[in-house]
């Protein structure tokens, strides 16, 4: 009987945020945009009309200029006569992989540092948080560029570089939440009952941090996608021939006055993906964070 | 208050020291060898060795770092490896352009952002509010280099209203400043909107209304000044994000500031310049945070000093 009641309550709690999320128009639009990009990335080999690296002879004009959108190449071709639509679809993979991997890594680093500093306090906490302050003052893009220059940038290195730059915000938020959680009565009660540090951390602190992590995880993907695009645009991110929305612009930038679609199609794709995660993340914050509820 | 400021200053200095150490370490482990770059391809092993000794690059890391620090406190940031001039002079010559661009960029993001936020708060939950908030989402999601290229394409290439990059006249300043300001305006509009809504809910607004003041007067004299201060204090914290944008915007528009200097230095592994620009930038960020920390409690006495 009690078991059923508890399960029913859990159902309400689980269905609640999700229903409230998709009832928001902007969040729903965001989710659909993400779905479009994910499907495009997953099924790129099926959807893409050509291989992303195939240089078409008929993809250039007689003078050697790229073709505008339309005809055989729906979004036109790039400077090497490759199909832009195919490159955009495969580029979505790069953006999503970096978004998920880099942001996942940043969340893990941020959570470990934030929870450790917030729960242990003392000199370890002080050192960790001073280090976080330090990283906050570091000009992020310069740091990322330096790191990317040190390691030869491959897809995974770029993800790691972004994670090393982006964990700071998460650490700060998680630290603040952990310190306030650690002072709550139920944690003191657990301690009195003899629960070890590990049990308290994994059974009582971390579960309470999940909503915050979901919100920051979602908003963070947007930041990550933008940073990857910027690094690739500067030529220190994902390296050609692997297509990335940022490096498509990097490769074709010199020609952009004559062939603006080579800059604005991938640029629009970056905007859409970052926007989608921002919309969903913002709605999630309203839905999941009780302190923010009703503030809109 | 005095001890509070003193403690913040000490903390900021330590942060700067930490940043200088990490940057120095990162550049030390850089696989690209600056000596080879200077010496050129055809240099003999002996020449390479000589240059290495001359620059002190054969010394252990810690010795190099402390020598750099002791020079730094005397205002000497070393010489550029490739341009053969003092890094401090190079940065000083580029700084006015960057400060001008930053000032204009911050002005842009505040004017656009605050106006959007105020209007949205006054038209709360109405279509205009929703439109403005969607615009603010787009603004924070748009990559700065795409915005820069878009502005360049529309207003310089197509319409010809502004020059295509470069530096010199006021017309050169408009597009980069807007490109730099758009992303921030998205954040500021959201902050201003919620700050304004918060203030409009306060008792003193109700009092003002009860006194029979006009809506116009309440908004202009009571609501906006109170709502705007905490938002403006955010600028200090914002400087870091702003600095990142400078590298991109300066490189797209060919603006001769320190962002472009840093970018060229990174491509050529000119370590003293990278080091110098990173430190100057970090200094700006730390100074901005420090000012925000000092000014915010002055603006709002309710904030307790920690």
What is the tally of helical segments of chain A? Answer: 11
CATH class wording of the largest domain in chain B? Mainly Alpha
Find the CATH topology of the largest domain in chain B.
Answer: MetI-like fold
Largest sheet of chain B: none
User: Would you tell me the overall average pLDDT of chain A?
Assistant: 82
SSE-based structural type of chain B: mainly alpha
Strand content of chain B: under 5%
CATH architecture of the largest domain in chain B: Orthogonal Bundle
- What's the overall geometry of chain A? elongated
Residues in helix, % of chain B: over 70%
Instruction: Work out the oligomeric state of the chains in this entry.
Output: heterodimer
E-strand count of chain A? 0
Description:
The complex is a heterodimer of chains A (296) and B (306). Chain A has 296 residues and is mainly α. Chain A has eleven helices and no strands. The radius of gyration of chain A is 23 Å and the shape is elongated. In chain B, helix 5 (87-122) packs across helix 11 (235-253), helix 8 packs across helix 10 (215-232) and helix 8 runs antiparallel to helix 11. With 306 residues, chain B is an all-alpha fold. Chain B has helices spanning 2-28, 34-39, 45-54, 61-73, 87-122, 127-141, 144-158, 170-200, 203-210, 215-232, 235-253, 258-267, 271-299. Chain B folds into two domains: 2-73, no CATH class; 94-299, MetI-like fold (Orthogonal Bundle). Chain B contains 13 helices and no strands. The model of chain B has no long low-confidence stretch (mean pLDDT 83). Chains A and B meet through helix 5, helix 6, helix 9 and helix 11 of A and helix 1, helix 6, helix 7, helix 11 and helix 12 of B.
């Amino acid at each position: 009987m009690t078991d059923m009641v508890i399960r029913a309550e859990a159902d309400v709690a689980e269905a609640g945020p999700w229903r409230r999320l998709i009832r928001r128009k902007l969040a729903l639009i965001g989710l659909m945009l993400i779905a479009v990009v994910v499907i495009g990335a997953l099924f790129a080999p099926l959807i893409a009309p050509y291989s992303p690296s195939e240089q078409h002879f008929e993809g250039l004009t007689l003078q050697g200029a790229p073709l505008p959108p339309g005809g055989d190449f729906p979004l036109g071709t790039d400077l090497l006569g490759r199909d832009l639509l195919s490159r955009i679809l495969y580029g979505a993979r790069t953006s999503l992989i970096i978004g998920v991997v880099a942001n996942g890594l940043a969340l893990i680093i941020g959570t470990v540092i934030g929870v450790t500093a917030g729960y242990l306090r003392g000199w370890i906490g002080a050192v960790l948080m001073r280090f976080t302050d330090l990283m906050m003052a570091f000009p992020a893009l310069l740091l990322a560029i330096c790191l990317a220059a040190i390691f030869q940038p491959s897809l995974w290195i770029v993800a790691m570089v972004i994670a090393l730059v982006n964990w700071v915000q998460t650490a700060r938020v998680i630290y603040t939440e952990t310190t306030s959680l650690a002072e709550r009565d139920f944690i003191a009660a657990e301690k009195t009952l003899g629960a070890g540090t590990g049990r308290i951390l994994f059974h009582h602190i971390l579960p309470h941090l999940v909503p915050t992590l979901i919100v920051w995880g979602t908003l963070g993907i947007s930041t990550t996608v933008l940073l990857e695009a910027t690094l690739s645009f500067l030529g220190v991110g994902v390296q050609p021939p692997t297509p990335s929305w940022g490096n498509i612009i990097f490769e074709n930038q010199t020609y952009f006055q004559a062939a603006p679609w080579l800059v604005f199609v991938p640029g629009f794709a970056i905007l859409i993906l970052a926007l989608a995660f921002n919309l969903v993340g913002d709605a999630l914050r309203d839905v999941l964070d009780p302190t923010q509820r009703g503030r809109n | 208050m005095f001890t509070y400021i003193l403690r913040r200053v000490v903390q900021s200095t330590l942060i700067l020291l930490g940043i200088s150490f990490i940057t120095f370490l990162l550049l030390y482990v850089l696989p690209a060898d600056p000596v080879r770059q200077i010496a050129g391809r055809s240099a003999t092993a002996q020449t390479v060795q000589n240059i290495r000794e001359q620059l002190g690059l054969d010394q252990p890391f810690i010795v190099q770092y402390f020598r750099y620090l002791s020079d730094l406190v005397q205002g000497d940031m070393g010489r550029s490896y490739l341009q053969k001039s003092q890094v401090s002079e190079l940065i000083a010559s580029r700084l006015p352009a960057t400060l001008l661009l930053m000032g204009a960029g911050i002005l842009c993001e505040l004017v656009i952002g605050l106006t959007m936020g105020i209007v949205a708060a006054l038209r709360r939950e109405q279509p205009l509010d929703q439109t403005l908030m969607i615009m603010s989402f787009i603004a924070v999601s748009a990559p700065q280099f795409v915005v820069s290229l878009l502005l360049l394409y529309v207003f310089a290439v197509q319409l010809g209203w502004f020059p295509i990059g470069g530096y010199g006249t006021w017309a050169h300043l408009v597009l980069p400043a807007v490109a730099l300001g758009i992303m921030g305006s998205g954040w500021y509009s959201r902050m201003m909107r919620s700050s304004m809504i918060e203030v409009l809910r306060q008792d003193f607004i109700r009092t003002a209304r009860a006194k029979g003041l006009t809506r116009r007067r309440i908004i202009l004299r009571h609501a906006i000044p109170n709502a705007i201060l905490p938002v403006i204090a955010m600028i200090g914290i914002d400087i870091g994000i702003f600095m990142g944008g400078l590298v991109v915007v300066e490189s797209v528009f060919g603006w001769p500031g320190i962002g472009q200097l840093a970018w060229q230095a990174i491509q050529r592994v000119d370590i003293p310049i990278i080091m110098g620009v990173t430190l100057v930038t970090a200094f700006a960020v730390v100074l901005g945070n420090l000012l925000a920390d000092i000014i915010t409690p002055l603006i709002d006495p309710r904030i307790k000093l920690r």
